[in-house]
């Protein structure tokens, strides 16, 4: 299914906007107000994304659901632990889905990230494995930070640590995607061969 491709700045705003709201609200009002603001911002970002593209990326949808659930628990029980462990749950979930898919010979990275580039089967496997290991490492890192550092330090890490780390890691995968990239002509030839076989 073809999906509308929003402007890169719009995509960046919907992804980073809620985190910046969380950071600003925590600095001025504390973690509980920040959690409520984060939940509202996440919902607004998903609504805006759907309004513009008629589509919500799977990763954003899963993240939004986990934020709402754990944010609600944080506010209702007045316990910071739930919002702090939320990134661990998300990272661990993504690592499990990607790693579990590989065990069964499936690569879910394209679905999870809503990607449009075309790779060879080996390329998809390698990219999926790398992201699974990255998410597992980020889950461990988040647990270490929130359990050993102050709340303000954790919030700063979440916004100015985890996000840059993810962006840097994503850019480091570009050589792999170029190395195992399938040209459109190759894909068309492959589709043509499959069509001939099915007709025969």
TrEMBL record:
The keyword Nucleotide-binding does not apply. The keyword Ligase does not apply. It is found in: Cell inner membrane. The chain crosses the membrane at residues 20-46, 58-77, 89-111, 123-141, 153-172. It is a multi-pass membrane protein. Plays a role in cell envelope biogenesis, maintenance of cell envelope integrity and membrane homeostasis. NCBIfam families: ispZ (TIGR00997), PRK00259.1-1 (NF001323). Belongs to the YciB family. This is Inner membrane-spanning protein YciB. The lineage of its organism: Bacteria, Pseudomonadati, Pseudomonadota, Alphaproteobacteria, Hyphomicrobiales.
């Amino acid at each position: 299914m073809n999906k509308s491709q929003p402007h890169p700045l719009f995509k960046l705003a919907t992804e980073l906007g809620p985190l910046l709201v969380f950071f600003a609200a925590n600095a001025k009002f504390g973690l509980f107000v920040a959690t409520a603001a984060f939940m509202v911002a996440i919902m607004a970002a998903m609504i805006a994304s759907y309004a513009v593209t008629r589509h919500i990326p799977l990763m954003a949808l899963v993240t939004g659901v986990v934020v709402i659930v754990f944010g609600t628990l944080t506010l209702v029980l007045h316990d910071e632990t739930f919002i702090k462990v939320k990134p661990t749950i998300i990272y661990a979930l993504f690592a499990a889905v990607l790693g579990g898919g590989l065990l069964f010979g499936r690569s879910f990275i394209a679905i999870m990230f809503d990607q449009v580039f075309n790779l060879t089967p080996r390329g998809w496997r390698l990219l999926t494995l790398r992201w699974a290991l990255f998410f597992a490492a980020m889950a461990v890192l988040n647990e270490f930070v929130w359990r050993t550092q102050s709340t303000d330090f954790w919030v700063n890490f979440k916004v100015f640590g985890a996000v840059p780390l993810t962006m840097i890691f994503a850019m480091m995968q570009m050589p792999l995607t170029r190395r195992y990239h399938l040209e459109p002509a190759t894909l068309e030839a492959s589709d043509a061969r499959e069509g001939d076989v099915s007709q025969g």
